[in-house]
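Write out this protein's structure.
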Amino acid sequence: MLPFPRPHRHDVLIAVIGLLGGLLMWTLGLHTQGEGPLAPSWASLLPLAVVCGLELVRRTAPRTALAVGTPALVADQFTTGNMATVVLFTDLVYAAVVYGTPSAARRIPVAAFLITVATTIGLLAWFRTPQALIVGVVIGVISFGPAITGVSVRNHRDAAEAARLRAEQTALLAEMDRTQAVAAERARMARELHDMVANHLSAIAIHSTAALSIDDPGTSRDALAVIRENSVEGLAEMRRLIGLLRTGDKAGPSASPTLGSLDALVEQAAANAGSSGLTCTFEDTRTEPGPVPAPVELATYRIVQESLTNALKHAAPGPVAVRLGRSGQSLTVEISSTYADRPEPRAPGSGAGLVGMRERVALLDGVIETGPSDGVDGTRIWRVRAELPVDEGYMTS
């Protein structure tokens, strides 16, 4: 492991070019001032070598480079002077602002400005000649100019970095929204497929079992009729869903089941459940039906459909009652069946029916209750009760 970070290749290039340029000026006798009072001509190469070495750490240690480079520049003024030393020092000021800490980036331009003003005023007071203003301008160009340039570059760099981060955050949020939308759509498709297919396939499974277990031509004929009816209706439902998936919402709301189809749904369930000893009834207690949002109609239909399917699988012989009512701005649907604590259902299931009903109700900000309870005659019943909002605010949202 290296004790110091490897310098950037651009910094190495700047240091090499500065050193070669300074040696060339010294060889040609191009000095910034006459013979220094305290040092020979070759002494100007020492400050040059120092600032060239500091260029190697202008990114990794910018404040240290500026702190050491400032005395080197002052020492250069007591020699014959080298323009390359001055130019490299301006780059150290610039690098200290661009690559230094935010506090250093704020303080260095202020300090450079104050030094320029103080030096100019001091030289005017000491020499009392207009030429002192030229010296002040040169000091400002060497110190304050690079500092201001560094501030501008740093601000642009920070703005570009902030824009990049915002773009990344926007892309991340867009990807999260897309993922959530895909997950929600997959969940909706899973609910639709389960609710449509489970009802028909459960009836097919139950009646095919009866046809295989009972050696009676009449029973087999009736079972096959029910199996065919459910197969045809299941295929029709599948075609409808596939059409919706292919055309989006172009199929229109008429393609979705409505409350007006509940009586036909219950009649079909009664035909399917006759061999299991179940009697299905439908009661609509709404005095003023009124308009109901399409999502509420679809959710109500699917809840009844799934509840009837569960009754066909699990309920004991007895009544299966479907009640539809409206109280204020809430549509109420209740399905009750005789509770049977059987070890296995009449037909296999996935266990996702109750989950799908709760998801549908939650999406509409409704309330659902499921579970066994005591009936009016003391028998145990399984009850599903859901309340869905149908107020005007929901319909226009």
